[in-house]
Amino acid sequence: MNHLDAQLPHLETFSVAAELCSFTGAGKTLKLTQAAVSQRIRALECSIGKPLFHRQGGRVSLTDAGIQLYGYAQQILNLHREARQAVAGEEVPLHGNLSLAASSIPGQHLLPAGLCVFRNRFPDVAVRASIEDSMAVLDRVESGQAHLGLVGQQTERGHFHFRPFVSDELLLIVNADDRWKKRQRIRLPDLLRRPIVLRESGSGSRWCLQQALLRKGHTLDDLNVTLELGSNEAVKEAVLNNTGIAVLSRLAVQRELDDGRLISLKIQDVDLVRDLFVVSDTRHALPRSAQTFLQFWLASHCTASA
């Protein structure tokens, strides 16, 4: 980098464009014309001597140089906010948009309560959250449609950053009238023979069961699968109606365990404890709202095994 003579507005424009993956979106947010946004970005690129964005149709993504500059830009802009607050006594509220995607377990059983606390602290942040299976969540984070994801599995895609935040135990569950109702533990060969209801492909719970079976020399094909269903609620209803047994998160079945409609068992020598993760894509810039939520979430949930 030869020199950087751009002023704060240029860095702010660059940061917003990076966070929204759009020059048009940055213009709307900052109340600038698209020409003004483009001019500020070009000024930065000329000053640095490297392109900061990949242009792909109407969307943009950061180059390696852009990713590096974004980190420094955030430090400069945050320092500016702190200076205003310290010198002028001016409180700078957190505002902006926050887009989240979560798989069914964290999305249904952890996220709602957490968002209530977060929104009470930061009422000027507009939050949008979707609940999908883990693979769909990862796709949304990868495409930039979600700033952060909450999932129950990791993948080998190297541009993802997975941060464990809580441990989750999966249980073998049976109907209260099942012939195994008085047993506390069953052997894996017995499990393989029983009709079982699975979550759909892409589910983190299914992936966890698959990995546990692989460690014992088996695959999902060795199970006697009677149904594959797209939600934990559907799987529970199938078990309650004696369609088969199932393996689900304790969080998903705690109510039915407490009222006695379902019974949980252990599978001998099979580990079904997993971590839940917050995931981000290192190629996409996290806005201040997402950075703040990430810090809040990890501080609120720090019981992962990793």
UniProtKB/TrEMBL annotation:
GO MF assignments: DNA-binding transcription factor activity; transcription cis-regulatory region binding
Keywords tagged on the record: DNA-binding, Transcription, Transcription regulation
Source species of the chain: Fuerstiella marisgermanici
Family per similarity comment: Belongs to the LysR transcriptional regulatory family.
Pfam families, per the entry: HTH_1, LysR_substrate
Keyword presence, Transcription regulation: yes
Lineage of the species this protein comes from: Bacteria, Pseudomonadati, Planctomycetota, Planctomycetia, Planctomycetales
InterPro entries: LysR_HTH_N, LysR_subst-bd, WH-like_DNA-bd_sf, WH_DNA-bd_sf
Annotated HTH lysR-type domain residues: 1-63
Protein name: HTH-type transcriptional activator CmpR
Origin superkingdom: Bacteria
